[in-house]
Amino acid sequence: MYDVILAAITAFALTYLSIPSIIYIALKKNLVDTPNERSSHSSGTPSLGGIAIFAGTVFSISFWVPFQYFDNLQYILAAFIIIFLIGAKDDVISISPRSKFLGELFVTSILVLKANVKLTSLYGLMGIYVLPEYVSIIFSIFTILVIINGFNLIDGINGLSSSLGLLITFVFGIWYFLIGSIEFSVMAFALFGSLLAFLKFNITPAKIFMGDTGSLFVGLICAILAIHFIEIQSQIPESPYTFSSAPSIAIGILILPLFDTLRVFILRLMNGKSPFHPDRRHIHHALIDAGLSHMQATGLLIAISIVFIILSFMLQKIGNFNLLVIIILLATVLSIIAGKFAKRKLSKV
User: Fold this and answer.
1) Distance between CA 5 and CA 64 in Å, rounded?
2) Per-residue pLDDT tens for 231-250?
3) How many secondary structure helices (H) and strands (E) does the chain include?
4) What is the bridge-based pairing of β-strands 45-46 and 32-33?
5) Residue 209: strand pairing partners
6) What is d(CA 25, CA 18) in angstroms, rounded to the nearest whole number?
7) Which one of 47, 94, 226, 279 is least enclosed by Cβ atoms within 10 Å?
8) 4-to-7, 53, 180, 322 alpha-carbon distances in Å
9) Count of beta carbons in the 10 Å neighbourhood of residue 340
10) Measured between alpha carbons, how far is 248 from 123 in angstroms, rounded to an integer?
């Protein structure tokens, strides 16, 4: 219990104390995010907040995680360092999507092949139980890549990525604590503490953004927490906190980055464009276009995410497939409503 609390406090303190210096250096060296036609901010803002998030989280994990219970931590920390370098380089001098993808692929390969962060069963979702080894490896790499880039893509308005990261790490952190998996609870609450400190500087008017350094790192940790959440269910069959619909619950917890990424990719393909073509089709852009402020849009999306999480836990006994259908249908309806409000607002301008 104390390790979990101290991990959050340590990460919070280190992140909170380092951000002012990062802001000062970024402004001094003109390392700022310049607004463009897709931006939701109007002035140049430092985008190196991910450095503080990374430093606070990794230091806290290294200091408080009981290494004797976490054999694969060295490989996870190695993956953290690589994803940090990829994000930091992209924040300072933009790198090509191909180079970025190859770097992410290297990171996910370390996690899957060395740290054993992989899915071996879908617990009956789509009729699939045990996954063959090669399918498990490919599917796990794909899943981690989707979650990482999902967080990267939703990082478009003040407070959204950090608030969502706070919500997800809190839910996973509490669950891991309840089942006695202290090492993963420490990991979750270390990131929670860092994000809480960062949010102080990221709410409107934002003094700093987390940038790719932060969003890729947050997405990576959330991917690890989600995959282990699914995998560990078979190891705790007698626990009152075991869930038979773990894959669908994990999707419900991560619904915003996962569904928004899927939605945007489909819309881009339907319009004859590359799924990686940047635009303003994200749900948070629709809410901004509908007239909401950054913090109003963030608050609404977090409230909706909370509803999805509660719904996922409450309905987990109806089965993986049924729960997944309900989650996707509800997310689709809500996104259509948001889009219609945005179009109506824009038509009046």
Assistant:
1) 10
2) 999 889 888 999 989 999 99
3) 13, 2
4) antiparallel
5) none
6) 11
7) 94
8) 5, 17, 11, 35
9) 12
10) 10
Question: Among all chains, which residue has been given the structure tokens 């004797």?
Answer: 68
Alpha-carbon distance values, 48 to 55, 56, 88, 93, 116 (Å): 12, 14, 8, 12, 30
Taking the C-alpha atoms of residue 305 and residue 252, their distance in angstroms, rounded to an integer, is 8
What's the pLDDT score for residue 77?
Answer: 96
Write the pLDDT tens digit of every residue in 261-270.
Answer: 888 888 888 8
Query: Which tokens is 37 given?
Result: 């036609």
pLDDT in tens, 65-107: 987 778 889 999 999 999 999 999 999 988 888 899 999 999 9
Residue 5 CB neighbours (<10 A): 13
CA–CA distance, 60 with 189 (Å, rounded to integer): 9
User: Quick one: pLDDT at residue 281?
Assistant: 77
Distance in angstroms (rounded) separating the CA atoms of residues 161 and 105: 22
Helices (H), 93-155: 97-109, 133-154
Long-range contacts formed by 233-238: CB under 8 A, 24+ apart: 233/123, 234/121, 236/179
* Cα 240 from chain centre: 27
Tokens coding 150: 């999902």
Task: Please list, in sequence order, all residues whose beta carbon lies within 8 angstroms of the beta carbon of residue 119, skipping any fewer than 6 positions away.
Answer: 131, 136, 139, 140, 143, 227, 230, 231
183: tokens are 């090492």
Element (H, E) at 174: helix 160-178
